[in-house]
Design a protein that fits this description.
Strand content: under 5%
Shape: elongated
Number of helices: 4
Distance between the termini: 22 Å
């Protein structure tokens, strides 16, 4: 089971990298638009995050409040990306909120023990 957890974690990190990297690339380009990397990164992050929340560890489960917080953040990110994906341009505040929530989700993962 540990191998499965590590594979899920690895894919989860790839999803995070796609989401954040795609966001920063679009922001730096000056054209605020949801790209494929952002969409797929949010989907991968959400699905693998749900998989990581499953009880796969021997007695070392994350706090339920942490899981709910991460799920809420991941759902907000996914909704913000999914429903804006076909727009020619996205509001700057909306786009920065996606980046901020992505960084907040990573911070919860790292700093909440």
């Amino acid at each position: 089971m540990e191998t499965l957890r590590l594979v899920l974690l690895y894919v989860h990190l790839i999803g995070f990298a796609m989401l954040l990297g795609g966001s920063i690339a679009q922001y730096v380009s000056g054209r605020l638009r949801i790209n494929a990397a952002m969409l797929w990164g949010s989907v991968i992050g959400l699905l693998t995050g749900i998989g990581l929340a499953a009880p796969l560890r021997d007695g070392h489960e994350p706090a339920p409040a942490k899981l709910v917080t991460k799920l809420a953040l991941a759902l907000m990110i996914f909704v913000m990306v999914f429903f804006s994906r076909k727009r020619e341009s996205v509001n700057r505040g909306h786009f920065l909120a996606i980046i901020g929530l992505t960084l907040a989700n990573a911070a919860v993962a790292v700093f909440w023990h």
